[in-house]
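Worked Example 4.2. Consider the chain below.
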Amino acid sequence: MITPFPLDRPARLAVFASGRGTNLEALLKAFPRGNPLGEVVLVLSDNPEAPALERARGRSVEALALPWEGRRAFEARALALLWERRVDVVLLAGFMRLLSPRFVVPWYGRLLNIHPSLLPDYPGLRVHQRVLEAGERETGSTVHFVDQGMDTGPILLQGRVPVLPGDTPEVLEARLLHLEHRLYPKAVRLLLLGLAFPPPEGLLGLLGQEAARLFQGLPPREKPLYLRAWALLRVWEKEDLVGSAFLGRAGAWGRGAFLAAHLLAGDHPALRAELMGLPEEVRRRAEAVLALVESPS
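Applying the procedure from the previous section yields the following structure tokens:
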């Protein structure tokens, strides 16, 4: 199975946070109790003094501190709580600990993180300072599936902002936070709607040799576009066209899937105009998905 989503009920979300919890706040607003797509039901922190805990309690969401007494002890307690609370998705939001394979492997595909750079560039810490020292003229944030490395998991969604003359790490951080507060909820909506998943195993059997080889050779930042197009064709019950679509041979359905996949990442007037020129059934299906993702609930 490529993805367990969408569910036939609201997904139960847990958020891990170590500090202020500004991205947590955005997730709490986007997925409150009663949201038909998903709701935040649990917040965990390794820091008993984290303001994130009070943000959650202020919205009547269960918030628990699990003081860090070593990775194994923390993860055992966290896994037990996730099981007891019937959690479907775990979202890391400023969680400053590296999780072990014992935790990551069973949650792979349902465990997301947000990182303040355009991964795979600038993983790890001191990101904004490193971006400025390198003279970059653009930076951004990345929502990615968590794997067993540090900020190495498959990219789900990215957003970009400019780096301006005179910027400081603090200015860049503030600029990116505005972006992240929109980006993270949107990425979660894509996941819960079944429009985002990490590359599945057995690509050769799923896509055919030529399309699988093409996909495997793509840069990390391009793969999410192809996976979104794949997901759209699945939703439209046209999954048999995925391999052909990757090779540009699936006609209007393939074209519509890639146009919609781009538009799900960010609006573009020229692409939206091109979508309007496709056959009515393709256009109608694409518009319905775009409206669903762009809706706040």
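The two ends are 26 Å apart (CA to CA). The chain has two domains: 11-192, 203-294. Compare this with Example 4.1 before moving on.
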